[in-house]
Amino acid sequence: SKLAEGTRVAMADVAALEAEIDRLHAYCERHGLNSRGVSDIVGREFALPVDAEHKATVLQVTTAAQPHMRAFHLAWLGFFSTFFSTFAPAPLMPYIKPALGISKREAAVAGMASVGSTIFFRLIMGLVADTIGARRGMAACLLVTTLPILGMMYVQDATGFIVCRGLIGISLASFVACQAWVSVMFSKPIVGLANATAGGWGNLGGGITNLAMPFVFLAVRDSFAPGDDDAAWRLCFWLPALLHFGTGLATLTGRDLPDGNVDELELSGAKQKSRSDVVLKVGFSNLNGWLLCVLYGMSFGVELTVTNEAATYFFEYHGLSVKLAGALASCFGLMNLFARSLGGIASDWLGKRFGMPGRIWSLWISQALEGVFCCLLGLTTSGMALEEIPASNTAGRCVLLLSVFSIFVQMAEGGTYAIVPQVSRSALGVVSGIVGAGGNLGSVVTTAAFFASSDARTDDSFIKMGLAIVASSCLCALLYWPDEGGALLGPRALGRFNPQLVLPPEGYGGADVIDLSGFAKGAPATARSTVLSTVKLSESVSTASEYESSADAENGDGSKESAVAPAATQPCKLCSAELRSVLSSDAVEQALKGLALSPAELRHEDALDALRLESPGLSTDELRRRAMSAGGATDRSALELV
Questions:
Q1: Distances in whole angstroms, Cα of residue 211 to Cα of each of 92, 310, 505
Q2: Who wins on pLDDT, 115 or 460?
């Protein structure tokens, strides 16, 4: 009885210790530590805490550890490089226009080519991400488009300039790779923040290029081509070319998925081989994807349009120098440093509280306010004659409105791609490609509709574009998920209607679905235990039973084999300095006493548990009394005592 009571107390103490350790793990994981020591399927321990699918549960931007944060940083840096190169000519147009004899309409066509050429390739990139992995798609995109960047140095007329800008613009397909890559690395509660931050920092390339290229031009002209503006602007393109080449090579050092690269995982059987026919049919048949495509066209597409127009607007309308016009125009792009992340944060926050309707409302509000501030920007000078604007001292007000306008543009972008991973897991890359292509198509449409005409005033064009943005934001009302509803409709409000018109085959997983079941048993110890290497009491009981059976086994010569105490009877590192530094010494000592019980004692308590389940009406003390009366029996005979 005394032994049984001690066992019961020890079990309670061990349970309390396990609860204390779980709280410790939760604290460590919130602070970005993989305290449970979880590893991938080949035993490589993750640097960040992960969920059951090995997706990171935190975003820790101060590290570049494999695989999650390495992929995150390479994803945004690759997209940044392509954004930088695509818009590098924009702030240099005051020098390029006279050198090549480019008219305003030809400049607008070049701008449309730079953002329109990638529409088809974004769709292709989505398929690539779903089949061979976003990492390789990103690397190929960067390395191949290095050539037209170098070609920009040798153009002689407007046609060559337009062709080069179009070819360089193909690299913007890297955005789809960026978002698809990040989506497979981070868990659902934070994927909005992760996608928004990666996309925002990538978009930052537009602001940096507007800010940096005029100064690069001056440095190159002073150092390598004194007095020769034509040679200087051409030499400037060495910078984006080197950025593409270096980042492309670095991208190859990443990992496709948390557990390895696509081909390795498919070969091992951990990943189902992707089928291009399935992902295309499923991705292209989702109505939510197409609605987000239009909505993204009126956020990211607007950003591309404004990035092409802003520097020229300040130079021609406000009479500022090339350097100052580029610096002020860069404010629009520099908001990406934080604003797109705000959109992801708002979407994740509302999503946790209200589900998908919360995410949709976050997008709707951001996009509507984007349109309002676009109109206010245009209204600042629309009533003035062009020659009056430089003397009106409205440049500062326009920069302020441009910055606020940009904040809501980026928030709408972040909100859109916080929803994209929830559209279709089976065709994540294709849906990302469709939505991303919509962004570039939106730029072509807004540029052609509002800015291409030689008679159109830029400020009036801002007003018209703002009204179009507000109107398009109402499409958010049509987004709908059967199990979660939409902004205005509840779950199952439309009956059996499903916006996913073509369903994937039964059992078909997405590009990021890994089957870990075949690796659980043979996985390294770090993949199955906590970092403190504690053993639960229930596992100890099982081990003790096996030990006691093996101890009774006879050797071939008839002698009994001497038993070595099993792992369950050992301290299991509970006395380590690491554990004592974070848990109370009393809890450790009590747990040690509990785990020091013999195998027979542990099995005795386990049997009492079985009796307790069969006779819930009897107290534990009564069960022990009857067991002792039966000579220590802990089988059904104890229940039959009178």
A1: 11, 12, 50
A2: 460
Selection from 249, 206, 170 nearest residue 83 by Cα = 206
Q: Which of 531, 578, 583, 529 is nearest to 35 (CA)?
A: 531
Does residue 308 contact residue 114 with C-beta atoms inside 8 Å?
yes
Of 36, 66, 71, nearest in space to 51 by CA: 36
- Determine the 3-state secondary structure of 554 from DSSP: strand
Torsion of Cα atoms, 220 then 226 then 230 then 236, to 10°:
-10
Helices marked H in 236-299: 238-251, 262-268, 276-284, 287-297
- CA 139 to the chain's CA centroid: 18
Rounded (10°) CA dihedral 366, 372, 378, 382: 180
pTM: 0.73
Distances (CA, A) of 9 to 13, 43, 535: 6, 37, 17
Region 415-437: what's the mean pLDDT? 92
Cα–Cα dist 107/95, whole Å: 13
Element (H, E) at 572: none
566: preceding bond cis by omega (within 30 degrees): no
- Tens digit of each residue's pLDDT (9 = 90 or more) over 172-196: 999 999 999 999 999 988 998 999 9
Q: How confident is the model at residue 631 (pLDDT cuts 50, 70, 90)?
A: low
Token pair in block for residue 247: 């980042």
Nearest to residue 537, comparing CAs of 21, 1, 149? Answer: 21
How far CA 52 is from CA of 39, 44, 49, in Å, comes to 11, 16, 10
* Crossing angle of helices 174-183 and 118-131, rounded to 10°: 30
168 contacts 86 by C-beta, under 8 angstroms:
yes
Q: Answer with the residue of higher pLDDT: 69 or 453.
A: 69
Dihedral angle, C-alpha 10, 11, 12, 18, nearest 10 °:
110
Q: How does pLDDT run across 200-243, given as a tens digit for each residue?
A: 899 888 889 988 999 999 999 999 999 899 999 999 999 999 99
